[in-house]
Design a protein that fits this description.
alpha/beta; 6-stranded mixed β-sheet; binds beta-D-glucopyranose
Length: about 525
Amino acid sequence: MSAFGKLRTLLSYSDRHPPPLTKSRAYHHHHRSNQSSREGSFVDVPKDLLGEIERLEKLFTIDTAKLKQITDRFVGELEKGLSNEGGSIPMNPTWVMSFPNGYETGTFLALDMGGTNLRVCQITLTEQKSEFDIIQSKYRLPEELKTGDADELWEYIADCLMQFIETHHGDTSKLEKLPLGFTFSYPATQNYIDEGILQRWTKGFDIPGVEGHNVVPMFEEALARRGVPIKLTALINDTTGTLIASAYTDTKMKIGCIFGTGCNAAYMEDCGSIPKLAHLNLPPETPMAINCEWGAFDNEHVVLPQTPYDVIIDKDSPRPGQQAFEKMIAGLYLGEIFRLIMVDLHDNHETHIFAGQDIPKLRKAYSLDSSFLSAIEEDPFENLSETAELFQSKLDIRANGPELELIRRTAELIGTRAARLSACGVAAISIKKGYKTCHVGADGSVFNKYPHFKARGAQGLREILDWPEKEDPKADDPIEVLAAEDGSGVGAALIAALTLQRVQAGNMHGILHPENFK
Ligand code: BGC
């Protein structure tokens, strides 16, 4: 077992830009919030392509006034989601009713069914404050399972768990049932912490017969069929796990975010501010973590500026009309937005980029993921030679100089819009809660790997919240978005531990199966 406690140091939100490799040439084009590692130059870009770049800039740029308008509405929508009437943001109570104090102990299993992988962990929260040991195995979540049959999915998961337990515990027949926290990162209604009624699939999943049902019995039946010695003690969302795991090592952490395949946040509310739970008569000051499911923000498109490309993304997704905000930010969609633009500029515009070339590879939906955009944005060379190679090797497309400039600018626009929109959500929760300063724990591939996402997000927050320019560039922002602790591993274990503790102390609120907590 390896000691992983406090393994990850908190990275600063404002990451450093690599210096440009060559001094930039004159830059004649109006460049809004570029945050780019390379100054670029549109001097040689022909007029028609420049026109396209300008059109895209208009479509994708979100200025300060718009950011503020979006944030305003966001604050109101958070409130609405907590009310009896409800709104498009679900604001799901999670029955996670306290922050950890760092002294939680015990050994727990955690299962993470994210958007891309399946991960099984065993976490031991040790006697040392805020420390833990973890062992883990990752399993690929086969693409077919995401749109296949529910039984196959649960059976695959049960098999992975069985394999993990056999590897680490040997003979399963003599084992007592191990407590497990199940990170199920989709919108779910939880009347209890050990229940999760799937509201709708997101992130491209589309498995019939699950929406509207409690997934816990389905999961447990698969375990029983295989004889897997596990009892589920908590079903959690990755954002709630991120919030709790981050608060375990940093008490300033108030919000947990995921910017990955999907996009969402959780924070701690007090029960007195949740009108839709009023009938339960919980003490008003009692904390309750809320899984916002903010991906659904503005599904009705009142403030979000939708481009023609966003319209196509939505229309062709398995759940049109859902997850409007997520579809502009999450990693699942960024590469696809880019691809749609490229195909459009090849087919439909006077510009005809990649003229005379067939583009069968580029025509394949969802063939470019967000790492493709990351690579474009990371190209350090003035002539974008790495981008040219990428287009050649991945897509069999030869892009000329002006086209490469267009490609780079398009990636910047998509990445910048995503980061700035994400700031609206963080700002909205902070405003709603009156947090002038706090830490926000964030995880996910876009947050961790997409170039400049952190700095662009921080710049968005600064504009929305009217922070003065920093005198010392290294100084912290009042609200800092930092790399989080492992939410779906450590966070799930902590939530299982906290739930066990409160049940033992007699707080039985939101517990469906008390027998599993003995
Ligand atoms: C899901 C959320 C999840 C987020 C990040 C969204 O699609 O609805 O439950 O937290 O993705 O994984």
